[in-house]
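Purpose: get a first structural picture of the assembly so the mutagenesis plan has something to point at.
Setup: two entries, given in the order below. No constraints added.
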Amino acid sequence: DVKVTQSSRYLVKRTGEKVFLECVQDMDHENMFWYRQDPGLGLRLIYFSYDVKMKEKGDIPEGYSVSREKKERFSLILESASTNQTSMYLCASSLGGPLYEQYFGPGTRLTVT
Amino acid sequence: GENVEQHPSTLSVQEGDSAVIKCTYSDSASNYFPWYKQELGKRPQLIIDIRSNVGEKKDQRIAVTLNKTAKHFSLHITETQPEDSAVYFCAASRGRGSTLGRLYFGRGTQLTVWP
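Result (C-alpha cells, whole complex):
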C-alpha cells in the first residue's frame, strides 16, 4: 500500500513566520506534488517535482518555494506567511510518467493569524 | 496550458437515482482523464480513469464516457447510495513534455445523496 504522510494535520502560524510543510512517500515515486485546496476553487497546483532537486512551478507558486533533496521527501516552504495562505495543503506522489495515479497525503490545515 | 471546467458545482439526488457530472477540457493533446473522490475530511482517491483510445469505461455502478471530438468527458453513477456523497474531481493530463505527470483538475462537484 502506498503511504504518503504529511508532517502535521493542523498548524497555526503568525504572519511573517517561515513555515515548513513536509511530505514523505514510501513507494519510490518519482513525481511529487503540492496542492492547495480552498472551497469552490478545487485543487490548485503550487509546485511539483519529477526528480530529486528538480522542480516545476504550478499555477499558484507565488509566496511559496519547495525543496526535494531526497526522492522520498518534498517540502513546501512559506518564506513569510500571510493570512491569505490560510488553507488546506495536500501533498501527492505518483510514479514517473503521465498516466499514473496520484496518491494523496492526509493534508495539513494551516491557519495564519 | 490546459483548462478543465466541471459542472455542476453541487448536485443533490435521491438514493437510487443516477448522477452525472460533466467536464470539458481545452487542450486537444490531453489523453488521460481520471476521476477522484474526496469524502468529508479525507484525502482524494482515484475511482476511475479513461484514456483517449477508449470511449467508455465501467466499474460496477460508475462509468466514465469520453468524447474527444467535443473535448468533454462525464462521470455516471447509477443506483446512488448515501456513501456516494462526496466531492468529485475530474482531471486531464497531456501525457508528454515538461508537464510529465501533472494533472489539471476541475473545481469539483459536491454530490449529496439523500436517503
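Chain B is about 0% helix and 55% strand.
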